[in-house]
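BUG: 3D viewer hangs when loading the predicted structure for this chain

Environment: internal workstation, default settings.
Expected: structure renders.
Actual: progress bar stalls at 90%.

Input used:
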Amino acid sequence: MLSQAVACLCHRAGQEEGQRDVMPDDSADHEAAETQADPTGLKLDASLDMRAASGLAGALLGMRGMDLEVDASEVRRIGGQCLQVLLSAHATWASENHALRIINPSNEFIEGVTLLGAPALGDGSLN
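Structure tokens produced before the viewer hung:
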């Protein structure tokens, strides 16, 4: 599921499916550092807009196959594309018998996912 989302995002970015680096080189000042990963967790950046979706998908793909905590404490804005990536990742992790948990969701993250129709992602009931 997540690989399908990445393939779609890669296609939209004009790149071939299977490439991990889906961000153009000139976007380094924006979403290249959109997420910060450590071995067991991923910290989301403040702005999860359309341009952040491919970077987020790539970061998640790199952490596939292990339990993962996604820290949403700094999120101030989330768009539909990043929500789709997070929901797809959650489904992928669950299908592989791994946990993907959203931790420390900011109020803006909770409000954003609720307005986009996925309140369970923000309130922890999807975990």
